[in-house]
Structure formats: structure tokens, C-alpha cells
Amino acid sequence: MSEKVKLVHGNGGRFSHELLETYILPHFKNEWLGVLHDGAQFPVQAGRMAFTTDSYVVTPYEFPGGNIGKLAICGTVNDLAMNGAIPQYISCALILEEGFELKQLEAILSTMEAMAAEAQVQIVTGDTKVVEKGSIDGIFINTAGIGMIPDTVDSHPKNIKPGMKVIVTGTLGDHAIAVMGTRYGLSLAASIQTDCAPLNGMIQAVLEKVGKKVAVLRDPTRGGLGTTLCELAQQSQTGILIEEEQIPVTAEVKSVCSILGYDAIYLANEGKAILIVEADVEEEVLSILHTFKYGKAATTIGTVISQNKGKVGLRTTIGGIRIIEPLGEDQVPRIC
Amino acid sequence: MSEKVKLVHGNGGRFSHELLETYILPHFKNEWLGVLHDGAQFPVQAGRMAFTTDSYVVTPYEFPGGNIGKLAICGTVNDLAMNGAIPQYISCALILEEGFELKQLEAILSTMEAMAAEAQVQIVTGDTKVVEKGSIDGIFINTAGIGMIPDTVDSHPKNIKPGMKVIVTGTLGDHAIAVMGTRYGLSLAASIQTDCAPLNGMIQAVLEKVGKKVAVLRDPTRGGLGTTLCELAQQSQTGILIEEEQIPVTAEVKSVCSILGYDAIYLANEGKAILIVEADVEEEVLSILHTFKYGKAATTIGTVISQNKGKVGLRTTIGGIRIIEPLGEDQVPRIC
Question: Dihedral of CA B23/B26/B29/B32: which sign?
């Protein structure tokens, strides 16, 4: 086989089979994999299921701390986790550009394999299309995922009530700045890396312990913390007041933001969650999060209030309150 | 809102929300739709589930008899049906090119809505990304789907045994020729249209009646009938002998094939199924298929034999036997 993806790898015939057998399937071995067929089959128990999908078109497809394959697994795992589900089965649909290096594909698939192992999910079905050189840049990936939601979980904006605490599991903006730094050839500190990570283990630990006292879970990806909180305030018709000085942002990200004029609360994250929890479990939730590597910097950033229904306020370090709007225009396309 | 897709429609903020609310959600209303969240939640019964995904990158995205949206619903519905499953929930992930006409998007989403209604599936979750002008041509769509497999179904290549009959549900090659005709500006007969259709209703009717007497179901998409039968012969380690004069191809497709040098048995179909059934239900299966509009031209094209294990033979109209290989090189990229 050549060392680059060719159009015939997408025609459904002998070469497609070869690509699948030689390059793709070795990374995705499991008993449910729909190897011989367009689809996987597996047993399910009765209950509530979550189902989600995302396409990944990030450019460049490699960046500090990760690549598009890492995003594709973690993004879908996290969407399931934010539904309160235990992620289980994932699909992997690749769109490859003619001429894409097969060793590059292998690196991406290896990352997907490693992330799937860490998140304890199985990649069970997939699809591969090839488009002509110049039709895309390199590789797009879609993953869909399913998982079951334990009965003890009830994550929904309607559960948000005044007095609840708003927790974020770590620093904001790392992913967006890492991708943009690479894209625009900025020489950033080596410590600026994507935060992309599978959060399901950590979230599950919280839910097992405090169950329905978690009102809602969200991952602030595109649109960032600001947009996500605006959606939650709208959907729950409560006010949300956050404290600027409590919002965790690394010094490096802060300084890039101030140079380029970005606001960290609108930057995309790929390994962070927002939890809105009853005040009496705030400390317990934080201490659980702190035991996980992806939750070491977890902190409370605000409170749900009964005033200003549907709105998000940010108490700034100088003491004023700034009303946060959902992200409007922005200059950061293809961040995931 | 402007009449074209803009990059900000993909940033996860206010404009993304507007695109979703104004253009996308009106086509996908149902009780499970994950409107407020990255994912849908719904109850499932215990049993065997099928899960499948496909990305659609067809060019052009409109062609006689259909468009990329029709393919995206029918393709995934049919993959589920070929697993013997009753398709139920579908995801819809759009990748849009900056500048794509919103009225074009609406036309595609309307087609998806109509196809989902016909196939009785619900589009419950989705994702929308926007890439810069020139990064793709127009629109790519990924759909994933899930459905439950009734206990009375056992479709697997291992069930294929000598003496069984090979049935195809209609004429071959229509989809590929319709797409290529448009792409290359050929002036073809108006009767050449994609065969793209949801086959689940028809397949379910067959399975309800003859259940486990259907050894296997496949839809001969990319790679066509020839490649699909080669895979089945290999997987079952039986021989498959088909009769050229029994293979249904319209006169129009035949004549395009003879002019352009295509072989209809390798052309992609999007609304056809292959059923391998026990000989004693052959007539019953055909008469069920004939009652459906997508099965009117169903016919038996061959027999499973004990000789030539793993191989497919075609008895030609002049009496010889030609060994059919899986599709090798071909000149028809982006047919779906």
C-alpha cells in the first residue's frame, strides 16, 4: 500500500478493505466492532439512554497536547458525561483528503485508541470517505456516542434554583489558545496546551456520591463559559452571578488574551465541566474533583440568584457588575 | 439574518443559536430532540441494539431524484434495516461551507424531514460546524442511527448455506449514474434518477413474515452488488453463482454503462437490498417485496452453492462463467 490516502481507498472495494484492515481496525479491536458489516450490534439493558454526535474540523489537526483524534473521543465522551450518562459505545466516521499521510492517520487513530481506553468506551462502528486533494485540509472526524444514564441522575436546567453554587473544574481558555497559537505560528509558552481530556470518570464519581444534588452539568466548549452560563440562566430563568477573581485562568493564557484582545470566558475548552450543585454539597463536590487529575483546579466561581432572571452577571475585580451576553461575533473558527 | 452561512454561525454563540432556531430545528421537532443540550435522552427497552454511522460527501449535493439530505437519512436508515433493526433515532451533524446559501440548506433539511417522516425515525441530536469558504464544497452531513433488533431476526453471513437464493430488490446502478450524469454534465434520460429510498418498512415486512429464514441482508452501496456478494461469499465460505440475464438494470443505465465503460454490478445503489433466503421462502419473499413501491422489480438473481467457496461466479448471457472480484480501481469518488 502507498503511504498516502488515495481516492480508491474510499470506493468501497478492495482498497477500502485494505485501508480498514491494515490501518484502522488494529486500533479498534473489541467484541462489538461491526467489522463485517455497516453497523454494530450489542445488548442493552432497559433504562434511559443518551445519544450525541459531533463533527471535528479543527485546524490545524495537531496542536500542543493533542490532535483531532483526541478531541473526537473526548468531545463525545464529555457530551455523554454532561448528560449524566456512562459513555459506552462510540462511532468513528473519517473524511480523509486524498494525499493525507497514512502515518499521520495512524498517529491520530493511536490517540483515539488511547483516549477510548482511558475513557473506557468502545469504538464499535465507523465509516471512511475520501475526498479529492484540496477538498478539505487533511482530516475531519465525526463521532457519535451512546451511554446509559443511572436512575440516580437528573441533570436538567429546570433543576437550577437560587442558592446553588456554580463550580468549574479547572482553568479556562487553554484549548482555544493552544490551537490558535499553532495556527498563527505564535511562539507561546510550552505550558499552553489543550486541556482536552475525558471527564466521564471524574463526573461519574461526583454523581455516584451526590446524585441528584447536581442540578446540571455542562462542558463549556465553543462559546465558552460565558455562553454556556447564559444558556443555563435562560433555560432555568434564574440569575447567575459569577466572580471574576474566582475564575481560573492561567497567567500564560491571561497574557495571550490581553495581547490579542480575547476574553477567556468566551474561549473554548475541551476538558472542563461546569457543575451547578446544591450549596450543601459544594465542599464535598470540590473535594471529590480535587482527587482527579482533571479536577485539581476545580473551584466555585459563583452562585445562582433569584434576581435578574435569565441573565448572567460578572462581578469584576474592581467591584462593578458586568452583564455577560452570549458570544456574538468572534474570530476563532474551527477550534474543534 | 443574512441569506448565507457565515463563520460566526459555527462559533457556538448567539449566531449559532439563531441558525439552529430559525433554520434547523423547525425541521426536526420531536419530544426527544436535545434542543437545550449536547445530546438527546430517551427510554430504551432491554434487547439487542444496532448502531451505525455514515458521512455523506456526495458531489454535487443535488442530483436527479434527490440530494445529500435524502442520502443522509436513507443511508443510515438502510444500514440499520440491513442489521435487521427497526430504525428509531438519528443524529444529524452538518459541516457547512461559509457562503453556503441558507435556502439551499433549508431545501436539504426539508428533504431530511420528509425522509425521516417516511422512514418513521426521529432526528434527536445534532451538531453544526462552519468551515471557511473553499474548505469544502457546500455541505457534508454525518448521520448516526440506532434501532432495536427483534428477537426473530438473525441476519449474519454465517447463516448463508448452499441452496439458498439470492434476491435483489430492484434495478442496479441508478444512483451512481444519476450522480455522475449531473457531475459531468451529461444529458441523460430524465428517467435516470437516484434510487435513494428508505427500505426499512419493506424489509421489516419481510422479516416479520419469514424471520430467521432470511440468512443475511445487505445494501449494495459503494462497491455495488459485485463487491457486496464477494464479501458475503468470503465471510460465509460458500460459493455464490449469479445469472447475468437475471440482474435487473434499466435500458438507460445499461446504455450509459456501455458508452462509458462502467460495469453495473460495481455501481453504487442507495435504495436496494440484497436478501439471501432459504429456498422454501423465495416466492413468499418476492411476493412481499412486490407489494412495496421500492420492491416492485425484486427478483432472484442467483443461488448459494457448495463449490468455489469464498468466490462469486457470474453466468454470462453467452453461457460462460466469469469470476467476480471485489471492486479494485474505480473512477467514481464521492458518490455518497
Answer: positive
